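> example.struct
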């Protein structure tokens, strides 16, 4: 896995833009949309000094939107691919730190928010529970856990993943299966919110998305949980 993303790190953004072509949007749009949705889900965190872990941060494309929507957040990123970590460090706007997955440094202290965007479908499913338990152990009391994933029930999503060169190893996860795993991990207050419904040609409908979270047809879904301890 590390090798897969190391290999594509130099032209990751270009390749991702190409595979998203069908939607009419680019990677920057989706990075901002993710963090805008997060701010909508947890407005109480927008103006608080929180510790924020971006697990599987890739090339760090979420850092700028996080700084914009959560200006007081202390950003920590980590990724399995050392090449992606290097890119995330290069992109770092000085407001955060990025560590290799093998480092102990990102495992220190507790986080108010752990965000995991489009990472779990690259991780062997047999490892999911172990990683979920570790991430839960790093949350503060009532800290929020957010998993953002491709929705396997959406045919356009399945096509994009099938055609994407660095998704060759991807195994999509049903929201119900992931919710069950999160329950086994001990998360509470869990809910699934479907998102990313409209292509750019229907952009005028995007403001409706917050009312469509119940509809299991979105291109992606957000699984939200809380650490009860
Ligand atoms: C599709 S990219 C998503 C990057 C970023 N989260 C985003 O939304 O732009 C998936 C990332 O997950 C990382 N990854 C894969 N397996 C991982 C693991 N076990 N632990 C941490 N990161 C992992 C890959 O190296 C890659 O950078």
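> example.seq
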């Amino acid at each position: 896995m590390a090798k897969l993303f190391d290999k594509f790190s130099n032209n990751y953004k270009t390749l991702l833009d190409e595979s998203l072509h069908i939607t009419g949007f680019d990677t920057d749009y989706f990075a901002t949309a993710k963090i805008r949705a997060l701010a909508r889900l947890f407005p109480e965190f927008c103006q608080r000094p929180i510790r924020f872990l971006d697990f599987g941060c890739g090339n760090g494309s979420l850092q700028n939107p996080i700084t914009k929507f959560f200006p007081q957040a202390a950003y920590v990123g980590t990724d399995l691919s050392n090449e992606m970590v290097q890119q995330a460090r290069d992109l770092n706007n000085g407001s955060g730190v990025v560590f290799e997955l093998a480092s102990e440094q990102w495992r220190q202290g507790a986080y108010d928010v752990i965000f995991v965007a489009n990472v779990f479908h690259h991780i062997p499913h047999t490892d999911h529970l172990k990683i979920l338990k570790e991430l839960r152990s790093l949350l503060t009391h009532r800290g929020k856990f957010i998993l953002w994933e491709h929705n396997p029930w959406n045919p356009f999503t399945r096509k994009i993943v099938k055609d994407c060169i660095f998704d060759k190893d991807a195994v999509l996860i049903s929201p119900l299966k992931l919710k069950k795993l999160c329950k086994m991990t001990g998360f509470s207050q869990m809910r699934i919110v479907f998102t990313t419904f409209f292509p750019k040609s229907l952009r005028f409908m995007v403001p409706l998305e917050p009312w469509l979270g119940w509809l299991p047809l979105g291109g992606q879904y957000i699984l939200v949980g809380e650490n009860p301890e």
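> remarks
The pocket of S-adenosylmethionine is lined by residues 1, 5, 56-58, 61-62, 79-81, 84, 101, 117-119, 122-123 (CB under 6 Å).
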